[in-house]
Write a structure and sequence with these properties.
Blueprint: H1 2-27, E1 33-38, H2 44-60, E2 63-68, H3 72-80, E3 86-89, H4 92-98, E4 113-118, E5 125-130, E6 145-149, H5 153-165, E7 174-178, H6 181-189, E8 195-199, H7 203-209, E9 215-216, H8 225-234, E10 239-243, E11 255-259, E12 264-268, H9 273-285, H10 287-290, H11 315-323, H12 329-354, H13 361-378
Parallel strand pairs: 1-2, 1-3, 6-7
Antiparallel strand pairs: 3-12, 4-12, 5-8, 5-9, 10-11
Helix pairs in contact: 5-8, 6-7, 9-11, 12-13
Length: about 375
């Protein structure tokens, strides 16, 4: 009799759990197929995106296609045109919002990009340097070959920020351009370049570590106030971080450097709230399924999200974060201010284009940057890209 009662109680409990799970999944309505863009194959961003995609297939029945792309424009364009639902971006999402660098063109301008979830984990972002160069500090990079990727300000500008820490500029080094992130890091292994920006957990960095060249990550000592002041003038989105994982790094050998969220799963403000809510909730509810699926994925937890960053959170994602208990009044205030900033930039862009801007691409960009600076100044908003 006791055994029968126990079995009955267990069956009722399991049924209850099944109902709760079914109700949770019912709130997530993903399309049968979903496309996401990411950095090149083998990168940390690509690997995390693949892990998330597998979770969405296993848990929610949505087939996810991951499109690797070599630069920021290529990653964002499919989302802009509706061919992809989300882009796994780096700091390029900030440049897209601001309408600067590759986005300061007639074809782009400031974009109403917004965030769902992102990750900051034990890794860092820095210039990985070939160990055979003898470099130990950022200032030692003078005269060395630095990798750049065409159309990728997220990589190039951050590399310049690292150089600024060491008191260097692009004029002090030899810039070597590559077609993609993957090609740049192949160039590191092949001795075509001496340093390239990456997250410390990226696959190509591990490949360099095990190659004859080896790898070193020059530290950015947190007590070097002058170095950090120079760096932050170039890349204000980059923050201090003690790094304990990555190629050649361990908990026993941490390095003081910095980081910013990556990948940043990016959407457009025009995408429906319910769709972005489901997408974000799927990543939150499925966290335990994919968190160990790729290095860096553990930082995707709702309560580990970077607060008050440089790009606003989409209202659908805000709803999911509120339900997860990972949203505060302070974040709401900061987010609303960022949304107003995007409105200011959009208005400035519309006005600029109505006033017959120059047709020459270089002059167009120059005129836009002047109009952008004036609009932000009038609105008393910060502008890290004022000339």
């Amino acid at each position: 009799m006791i055994t029968q009662i126990s079995r009955f109680a267990m069956s009722v409990a399991l049924a209850g759990i099944a109902v709760i799970a079914t109700e949770a999944n019912a709130q997530v309505k993903l399309p049968p197929t979903l496309t996401m863009t990411a950095y090149d194959t083998g990168t940390a961003g690509f690997n995390i995106t693949v892990a998330i995609g597998k979770m969405m297939k296993d848990k929610f029945g949505s087939d996810v296609r991951v499109l690797p792309a070599g630069n920021d424009v290529a990653r964002l364009q499919p989302v802009r045109t509706g061919r992809a639902a989300v882009a796994g971006m780096g700091s390029g999402v900030y440049f897209a919002q601001e309408g600067v660098f590759e986005f300061a063109t007639k074809e782009w301008g400031p974009q109403p990009v917004q965030v769902t979830l992102s990750t900051v984990d034990c890794n860092g972002g820095n210039l990985g340097v070939a160990k055979d160069t003898g470099v130990t500090r950022m200032s030692d990079l003078k005269g060395k070959r630095i990798g750049f990727v065409v159309g990728a300000p997220a990589l190039n500008q951050t590399a310049l920020g690292m150089l600024a820490f060491g008191g260097l500029t692009a004029k002090d080094v030899k810039i070597v351009e590559f077609s993609s992130y993957g090609a740049m890091w192949k160039g590191m292994v092949n001795n075509d370049v001496d340093a390239a920006f990456a997250t410390t957990i990226t696959g190509p960095a591990k490949e360099l570590e095990t190659s004859p060249r080896g790898i070193i990550w020059p530290a950015l000592p947190h007590n070097d106030k002058e170095g950090w002041a120079r760096l932050e003038k170039v890349i204000p989105f980059y923050k201090k971080h003690v790094v304990t994982c990555g190629a050649g790094i361990s908990k026993d050998k941490p390095i003081e450097m910095g980081n910013y969220p990556y990948p940043i799963y990016t959407v457009y403000s025009t995408q429906p709230e319910d769709e972005i809510y489901s997408l974000t909730k799927a990543m939150i509810d499925g966290y335990d399924v994919y968190k160990d699926g790729a290095p860096g994925a553990t930082g995707m937890a709702a309560k580990l999200q970077t607060k008050n960053w440089a790009v606003p959170i989409h209202k659908g994602a805000v709803k999911a974060l509120k339900e997860a208990g990972a949203w505060t009044d302070d974040q709401e205030k900061h987010n609303n201010a960022l949304l107003k900033r995007q409105e200011t930039l959009a208005s400035a862009w519309a006005t600029f284009n109505k006033n017959n801007p120059p047709s020459d691409p270089a002059k167009f960009t120059e005129a836009w940057m002047a109009a952008r600076n004036a609009a932000l100044s009038k609105a008393n908003l910060p502008n890290e890209f004022a000339s």
